[in-house]
Amino acid sequence: MRILQATSEFFPYSKTGGLADMVAGLSGALVEAGQEVTVVSPLYQGIRSRLPGLEAFGPEILLPLGSRDFSGQWWKSTESNGLVLLFLEQEHFYGRNGIYMEDGDGYWDNPERFMFFSKAVAQLAGDYDVVHVHDWQTAFVPMLLKAFGDRNDIPRTVLTIHNLAYQGQCEGARFEISNLPPEQFHQEGPEFWGSLNFLKAGLHFSDAITTVSPRYAAEILTPEFGEGMEGVLQSRASVLRGILNGVDYDEWNTDNNPHLAASYGPGNLSGKRECKRALQEQVGLPLKDVPLFGMVSRLAEQKGTDILIKALSAILGDTDMQFVGLGSGDLRLADELSKLQRAHPEQFVFFDGYSNPMAHQIEAGADYFVMPSRFEPCGLNQLYSLRYGTIPIVNGVGGLKDTVQDLTQPDPTGIVLEHLTVVELSNSLLDACAIFGTQRQLDMVEAAFRQNFGWDASCSKYMDIYQL
Ligand code: ADP
Ligand code: GLC
Predict the structure, then answer these.
(1) How far lies 140's CA from each of 94, 112, 190, 415, in Å?
(2) Which has fewest Cβ within 10 Å: 341, 367, 417, 428?
(3) Bridge partners (DSSP) listed for residue 101
(4) Which of 120, 121, 119 is nearest to 132 (CA)?
(5) C-alpha–C-alpha distance, residues 26 and 38, integer Å
(6) If you compute the radius of gyration of the chain from its CA atoms, what whole number of angstroms results?
(7) How many angstroms does the Cα of residue 300 sit away from the middle of ligand 2?
(8) Ligand 1 mutation pick, 297, 330, 403, max ligand atoms within 8 A of CB
């Protein structure tokens, strides 16, 4: 099959979260399974210098957004495994300091930036059997294809929802940038209570819809998790499926990992102790053998960081524990985390920023990894934690619930909260401290190592959907 993956993030060239990892992992697995795969994404600042061999692909393109035309150029690179990457150059739209935002504020013209990208993708689509689009940024592609394309020539379209909280919603008047006839701004399409909603266009027009865990697929049919889209999703439930994300275990492994101070694995935890010591040294925490908790996260309402701050404030002073956090995003949350560090400098450190090496070092050096998400479509960090022998402490929602076995289950791999409250989270952190250094903890670490969330199984589920 010739498969086109359209995404606004692709690891290692652009990333703000798990979307980048997921598309890279799935694409690699599809290539390994013998498929012809092309990934398209915008040419953001800095990508060209990492890929000096980029070659122009096709002639310059010119596409309208309402009454204005914008030009663009595709650039091609082929990875050593045969995966083809196409990057869309449009300096004004993509040559910026951020991918979606700067200084905490989203770009005002994100609808234009990603409509332009979606139109360019739709132009390419005829050469493929399947076009797989991801999140709101590319969700308009199926509608553009069906509205403009020759109906015999339309590839199968699949939309994956990585996060329903982001829908690309803006004022209805901006439907003009689609250059579709005004009557197509309709309830059975991108119109949502008068607004223009990119994701909703995809929910109506794609042939199949997937999301990134079975539990999240069920949750989003309810008002609690549906973010206003539960009605539309219910109407398309027959084509909706939850497929768990895989992990790229070549990237996330504890053996000869260039980011880590030492190698370790099942039955050999001495390297993990070295990684812990190296992390303590690096962040300036006392070199004590106390429970060390880690967090690596976008700072956003979704991640429950506000609840975590309250839980830590309640217990830090009276508990022999340490915490290392890395995150960026919401400025108010970053500020509160910095305050916590000033209050407990011997126990708590927070780094405001984005660093892939440090994400690996925290995953490896910590004893426990905390993810108190309000909702979590899949979550990758808990999967990385399991592979790193670091016990995840998670809220029991979405992919977190699907992948972590609580202390109360046979063969536990983590601690799973039933309700996300300050009290329940504080108690879970204290439970983790209580089992620290016991056989129980060691058994959990070994059980965590045994989990396998590689791409094989999930890749073949996507292939089934592509072939339907
Ligand atoms: P989400 O996509 O909702 O942010 P996931 O758990 O699926 O959550 O994926 C998050 C990914 O982004 C992980 O690979 C994680 O290591 C990475 N990440 C998030 N924040 C940072 C950061 N500040 N520095 C480095 N990596 C980060
Ligand atoms: C989203 C979700 C996260 C998921 C990731 C990759 O950002 O928040 O749960 O793991 O996409 O699918």
Answers:
(1) 18, 12, 8, 39
(2) 341
(3) 106
(4) 121
(5) 12
(6) 23
(7) 13
(8) 297
How far is 127 from 154, CA to CA, in rounded Å?
9
pLDDT digits (tens, 9 = 90+) for 62-117: 999 999 999 999 999 999 999 999 999 999 999 999 999 998 789 999 999 999 99
Tens-place pLDDT, residues 407-457: 999 999 999 999 999 999 999 999 999 999 999 999 999 999 999 999 999
Q: Where are the alpha helices (DSSP H) in 85-206?
A: 91-94, 110-124, 135-138, 141-148, 198-205
User: What is the number of the ligand closest to the CA of 376?
Assistant: 2
Residue that has been written with the tokens 């694995």 in this structure: 265
> Are 47 and 39 spatial neighbours (Cβ–Cβ below 8 Å)?
no
Sheet containing 208-211: which strands, arranged edge to edge? 55-65, 68-78, 84-89, 36-42, 2-6, 130-134, 156-161, 208-211, 240-242
Number of residues in the chain: 468
What is d(CA 465, CA 53) in angstroms, rounded to the nearest whole number? 34
From the CB of 25, is ligand 2 less than 6 Å away? no
The residues, any chain, with a CB within 8 Å of residue 47's CB and separated by 6 or more, are 13, 14, 87
- Under a CB-based contact definition with an 8 Å cutoff, are residues 304 and 420 in contact? yes
Quickly count: other Cβ atoms within 10 Å of residue 364's Cβ. 29
* Rounded alpha-carbon distances, angstroms, from residue 406 to 368, 372, 379, 416, 447: 14, 14, 16, 5, 12
The neighbour count for residue 5, using CB atoms within 10 Å, is: 27
Contact 155, 171 (CB under 8 A): no
Q: How far is residue 31's CA from residue 38's CA, in Å, rounded to a whole number?
A: 10
Residue 377 Cα: closest atom of ligand 2? 9
Testing ligand 2's pocket by substitution, the residue of 136, 298, 301, 378 carrying the most ligand atoms inside 8 A of its CB is: 378
Query: pTM above the 0.85 mark?
Result: yes
DSSP 62: E
